[in-house]
């Protein structure tokens, strides 16, 4: 498993899928997506691109989004 420690990344990153780490400040939205590849996705800045969130990581992403709203 490739954890954040293996890459020397700090707590400012969040794993959203087994193949994707995202910087927390870059996350702009979390939404349920329909169509090809139904599921959840986060919108990231500055590209305004949607990236898939795995079912396994969804609770972690939701918690991070709630914490960001409090700050």
Walk me through the structure:
This protein has 71 residues and is α+β, with helices and mostly antiparallel strands. Helices cover 24% and strands 38% of the residues. It has 2 helices and 5 strands, in the order αβββββα. Strands 3-4-5 form a 3-stranded antiparallel β-sheet, with helices on one face. It has a two-stranded antiparallel sheet with strand order 1-2. It starts with a helix and ends with a helix. The model has no long low-confidence stretch (mean pLDDT 84).
Spans with pLDDT under 50 lasting ≥5 residues?
none
In terms of structural class, how would the helical and strand content be classed? Answer: alpha+beta
Q: Helix-strand pattern, N to C?
A: HEEEEEH
Radius of gyration: 12 Å
| Beta-strand content | 35-45%
Lateral arrangement of strands in the main beta sheet: 3-4-5
Describe the largest sheet: 3 strands, antiparallel
Q: What is the tally of beta strands?
A: 5
How many DSSP H or I helices?
2
User: N-to-C terminal Cα separation, in Å?
Assistant: 31 Å
Query: What overall geometry do the principal axes of the alpha carbons give?
Result: globular
Helical content (DSSP H or I, runs of 4+): 10-25%
Average pLDDT, to the nearest integer? 84
The oligomerization state is single chain
Short description:
With 71 residues, this protein is α+β, with helices and mostly antiparallel strands. Helices cover 24% and strands 38% of the residues.
Layout of secondary structure:
Blueprint: H1 4-7, E1 13-17, E2 20-23, E3 27-33, E4 39-44, E5 49-53, H2 58-70
Antiparallel strand pairs: 1-2, 3-4, 4-5
